[in-house]
Specification:
Structural class: alpha+beta
Number of strands: 4
Helix content: 10-25%
Strand content: 25-35%
Shape: flat
Distance between the termini: 30 Å
Oligomer: single chain
Mean pLDDT: 82
Number of helices: 1
Length: 67
């Protein structure tokens, strides 16, 4: 996947915006990247498209509880 610096990162609409415990995501051709918003230069997770879709569908369908 592309280097994170070239990606368009975004925070969840559920993010409090106060700089605490947030993650940022970036869509890629193959899926998504996920990183800690407080450590933007650090490591990131790569999630394949099918796994990302299953995760977001589970959240939407409330099969996974949200804080």
């Amino acid at each position: 996947m592309s280097a994170p610096s070239t990606q368009q990162w975004f925070k969840s609409s559920y993010s409090g915006g106060s700089g605490t415990e947030c993650v940022e995501c970036a869509r890629t051709q193959d899926g998504a990247l996920i990183r800690d918003s407080k450590n933007q230069g650090g490591s990131w997770l790569t999630v394949r498209r099918q796994a990302w879709r299953a995760f977001t569908n589970a959240l939407r369908d409330k099969r996974i509880s949200q804080p």
